[in-house]
Amino acid sequence: MTLEEAQQSVDTWIKEVGVRYFSELTNLAILTEEVGEVARIIARRYGDQSFKKSDEEVDLGAEMADVLFVLIALANQTGVNLTEAFAKGMEKRTSRDKDRHQNNPKLR
Prior knowledge:
By secondary structure, the protein is mainly α. It has helices spanning 3-16, 24-45, 60-78, 82-96. It starts with a helix and ends in a 12-residue tail after the last helix. 4% of the residues are buried. It comes from Rufibacter radiotolerans.
């Protein structure tokens, strides 16, 4: 699925199943909540925190997909074309960081 297809899929789902978009501010709060859920899993799985019984079976991929869904919803409602925005971001990183990471001794 392309980013364009994902944006269309989210838009269709929201209009047909979700009735309407939540406000941008509400979606920002939901996005923050979803990112926090991803952070909780990573902190326990790859960091120093131990799992709570309720966290042991949580699917990291599903939580990341929740983040993506809300981010796409925000892009849709604010008129952001994620395909174009992502391409521009990759170009920016490539030109800005062309030598930066290659010359970083911390990454060797």
